[in-house]
Amino acid sequence: xxxxxxxxxNVAKTTTLLAxxxxxxxxxxxxxxxSTEETRYYLNGVYLCKSPDATLRAVSTDGHRLARIDSDxxxxxxxxxxxxxxxxxxxxxxAGNVTMSLCDGPHLAVFSGDGWxxxxxxxxxxxxxxxxxxxxxxxxxxAVISSAQIKRLMAVPEYGFKSVFVAITAGQMSAKxxxxxxxxxxxxxxxxxxxxxTGFNRKYLAAQARVTPTFRLTSKxxxxxxxxxxxDPLALFVLMPVLMGHLK
Length: 248
Prior knowledge:
Elements lengths: L2 H10 L1 E6 H11 L14 E6 L4 E7 L3 E10 L5 E4 H7 L6 E7 L4 E6 L2 E6 L19 E6 H7 L11 E5 L2 E5 L6 E5 L1 E3 L6 E4 H10 L2 E6 L6 E4 L5 E5 L9
Antiparallel strand pairs: 1-6, 2-3, 2-5, 3-4, 4-17, 6-7, 7-8, 9-13, 9-15, 10-11, 10-14, 11-12, 15-16, 16-17
Helix pairs in contact: 4-5
């Protein structure tokens, strides 16, 4: 990196010391929601920002799902977007402590640990108002989902570029192939209004199950976004539903 840029960074940076396990948790729980869409480049990473409690928060979204991961790490520094490749690199570092320096002026970050240093060019862009898409808590529809259940529903094949959707109704979840030739129905801890049905992209549920092996999904209605929580009380996820027509 140019020396002038590094010099400007050293003047303006905010630095904190944290455990590698803490930054790993923030990135591990949010990485699956990072967008790969090039036109919205500012979503191609994890947004590190300050929570209302002045602690470090990680946010990621691809427009279909969202992760908002809080921590107990005090933070009053800049809000920056850490690119995907940097997220992948940092996820390899799990031991010891990490010195994290961020700056939104030269858009640089430096992470250093025991015998390693990453210098990162941050994404220069404005992250959208993620709070506007997080629904208020509503348990009208509720389902507890496990990775074992999702694994059974993965037995339904996909043909071509068609996605398989998981339909959730009272007491069960089901998945069907696009031509309806193969279907799987399993019991589930799912409740809601009489006759309700809601559904979600199976790949998104599978990715979520890899991060939170058992989670509760709740929403206020069949065509409403769902809130997802696992065992971590500081981690919240949002998943958009599929249209009812796809489930019939």
